[in-house]
Amino acid sequence: MPKIIINAREAILKEAKRQLLENGYSATTIRSVAKATGIATGTVYNYFPSKDMLLASFMMEDWKEELSSVTYNSGDKREIIQGIYNAIISFSNKYENLFKDKEALTAFNSSLGDKHPILVSQLASLVMDAIADKDDKEFISSFIAESLLSYAMRGTDFDRIYGIIEKLL
Prior knowledge:
By secondary structure, the protein is mostly helical. It contains 9 helices and no strands.
């Protein structure tokens, strides 16, 4: 009779995240996660076909959680834009070591180019809540989203950039 594992997916994600944050990309493996959770390696592969899919799964959950903390219905443009900016900063700080890890970057490099436009589009749709009715609303929201990402990656203070962004809203 097969072994029934309650909340196996959640246990795998939790352990993989712990290992990644504590030990880094290279030391986190499907095998090490399986061993730590007491779940067979093959079973882990049933949930996640690769290490990168495993890591992407909990990172996506964290990203959604960051974005859910943003107040979009306040009507305050600054609050909306700053909330988005803070979510980017918080997420990038959480995974700073991963983003600086050369082996991880090599592994993710092939898919990063595909994911960037998706991220900008996602952020742009959130930025639209802060933009007044303008003919070029889609372009402006994409421009602001790309700018927020760029400034956040450089660690630029929000107050310094908001004056520039505010003119576009």
